[in-house]
Amino acid sequence: MVISINLPEINVKEEELKLLLAIKLLEEGAVSLGKAAETAGYSEKTFVEVLIRRGVSPIKYSKLDLDKEARNA
What we know:
The protein is mainly α. It has 4 helices and no strands.
């Protein structure tokens, strides 16, 4: 799928915009890690490294998962 977005004149490269979009979609739970990496144009391994460098966790737990882990600890 191709989506076109008209943006005001900004000094951000297309690659950076793709990365920012991928990170936000991942954080919101809208896409998987693999889809986010694909959106950003990276392999999963490289995308995880980028996330870590930017202080973003590549692992997402739901509240239910965290509660279950806490009970089993």
